[in-house]
Automatic annotation (TrEMBL):
NCBIfam families, alphabetized: SP
Protein name: Sugar porter family MFS transporter
InterPro entries: MFS_dom, MFS_sugar_transport-like, MFS_trans_sf, Myo-inositol_Transporter, Sugar/inositol_transpt, Sugar_transporter_CS
Gene3D superfamilies found in the cross-reference section: MFS general substrate transporter like domains
SUPFAM superfamilies the record matches: MFS general substrate transporter
Location(s), subcellular: Cell membrane
PANTHER family associated with the record: PROTON MYO-INOSITOL COTRANSPORTER (PTHR48020)
Organism classification: Bacteria, Bacillati, Actinomycetota, Actinomycetes, Kitasatosporales
Alphabetic keyword roster: Membrane, Transmembrane, Transmembrane helix, Transport
Bilayer disposition of the protein: Multi-pass membrane protein
Transport listed as a keyword: yes
Domain called Major facilitator superfamily (MFS) profile: residue spans: 29-450
Length: 463
């Protein structure tokens, strides 16, 4: 696939602007769906604080701590594998509804777990919901959003992930005592119920409805967020480009026509994980405690890292449809690589596996997350929601999602043991090397998708 820099087909300049009611409806629907992103962030982030108290209460070794963290990710892999086919067959809305219900059950079981075995089962359940949400939420928002605001709206999912992580650190700080970890895990029930009730009022994706021959329902769904003229024009464009599409199996997605887009989605997802972001999110309090911080100070410092993550994601949300995907992704990932080199150097200059300065460690982690948030943090969900045809978006984006969760599982299961084997310097520098390889590939292969219709993007990536 050659590098693509052209903008391609965009929303016609004369398209009538959305009414205030349509804008509210569009933002409301996106926000409800993005509660799945909040729960994704909360349930992945809260374990970093809870683990400081779960480990001594249940007598967990480093290995069992890693298993407890990674059990959620194992569930996420299974969730993504199932959700790809389910969301294409049953629809985006129904899949979101089931995911919200599973989030609620997982939160309750986590909070009452009498031992590590039940906790692991609960985290597998939460993982199923997270895997489902990570695939379905961006796909749903991308399919209801106009081209000119799709980047911001899909990126709302990533913003809500960072908000969830930040809130999880805040809750961890507020419940900083032995039994407080049960409240930390159980409070995930509140947003899960809010999402469940909100999804009941959502319309189905108009693109999914049209793909099932339900044109009038698709038109009604579009009219919630479009003027009548814009709705008819969009229906015509979708129908014209969908006419040539046939039902596609997973095997068909590996054929030459689809291979460039699938490979791009996989590489974006792999780079997202191989720079070690979830090693930071899951184990930041543990790393800071090992660097000499007390439990409360470690969680409070992690709260600062989470705040940086959230604020920079919000800034990127405002820029992504103006600046474009390529500058944010390539520039930010380059700074991520630099931050990883600096973090490794801090440990290299220190003694006994500690950095030369705890304050510099916090600053380095903040630089890392500030660069990651508007680049790879946004890109994995946004790019994978934009580059595939509607009829196969669920199945095709599952390749990237499975890559993300599979590598996340592998990294979370090996962070502490890898640090023991290679030292923190070796760990950070390996992550930096992977980031550099990702920058080189994406510089050559990533097209700019700003302002282009989903149908135009997917057509341009055909092999």
């Amino acid at each position: 696939m050659s590098q693509t820099h052209t903008v391609g087909t965009t929303t016609p300049p004369g398209s009538p602007p959305l009414t205030a009611a349509a804008r509210r409806s569009l933002l409301g629907a996106s926000a409800v769906a993005a509660l799945g992103g909040f729960l994704f962030g909360y349930d992945t982030g809260i374990i970093s604080s809870a683990l400081l108290f779960i480990a001594p209460e249940f007598g967990l070794s480093d290995g069992m701590q890693q298993v407890t963290v990674a059990s959620l990710l194992l569930g996420a892999i299974v969730g993504v594998l199932g959700a790809g086919a389910v969301t294409d067959a049953a629809g985006r809305r129904r899949t979101l509804l089931v995911g919200a219900a599973v989030f609620a059950v997982g939160a309750v079981v986590s909070a009452v777990a009498p031992g590590v075995e039940v906790l692991i089962v609960a985290r597998v359940l939460l993982g199923l919901a997270i895997g489902t949400a990570s695939l379905t939420v961006p796909a749903y928002i991308a399919e209801i959003a106009p081209a000119e605001s799709r980047g911001r709206l899909v990126s709302l999912n990533q913003l809500m992930i960072t908000v969830g992580i930040f809130v999880s650190y805040l809750v961890g700080y507020l419940f900083d005592d032995g039994e407080g970890w049960r409240w930390m895990l159980g409070l995930g029930l509140v947003p899960a119920l809010a999402m469940l009730l909100g999804v009941l009022r959502l319309a189905e994706s108009p693109r999914w409805l049209l793909g099932r021959g339900r044109r009038e329902e698709a038109r009604a769904a579009l009219l919630r967020t479009r003027t009548p003229e814009a709705a008819e024009a969009e229906l015509a464009e979708i129908e014209a480009l969908s006419a040539a599409e046939t039902r596609t199996s997973y095997r068909d997605l590996l054929r030459p026509a689809m291979r460039p887009a699938v490979l791009l989605g996989v590489v974006v997802a792999a780079t997202n994980q191989l720079v070690g972001v979830n090693a930071v999110i899951y184990y930041a309090p543990t790393m800071l405690k090992q660097a000499g911080f007390g439990s409360s100070a470690a969680i409070l410092s992690s709260l600062g890292i989470g705040l940086v993550n959230m604020c920079l994601t919000f800034a990127a949300l405002l820029l992504v449809d103006r600046v474009g995907r390529r500058p944010l992704l390539l520039g930010g990932t380059s700074v991520v690589v630099l931050a990883l080199v600096l973090l490794g150097a801090l440990y290299l200059m220190g003694d006994d596996g500690r950095p030369v300065s705890g304050g510099l460690l916090v600053a380095g982690l903040c630089l890392y997350i500030a660069a990651f948030a508007p680049s790879l943090g946004l890109a994995i969900w946004l790019i994978n929601s934009e580059i595939f045809p509607t009829a196969v978006r669920g199945k095709a984006s599952s390749f990237g999602n499975v890559t993300h969760w599979g590598l996340d599982f592998a990294i979370s299961l090996t962070v502490l043991t890898t640090i023991n084997a290679l030292t923190p310097t070796g760990l950070f520098w390996i992550y930096g090397l992977f980031g550099l390889l990702g920058v080189v590939y994406l510089h050559r292969k990533l097209p700019e998708t700003k302002g282009r219709s989903l149908e135009d993007i997917s057509a341009s990536l055909r092999g």
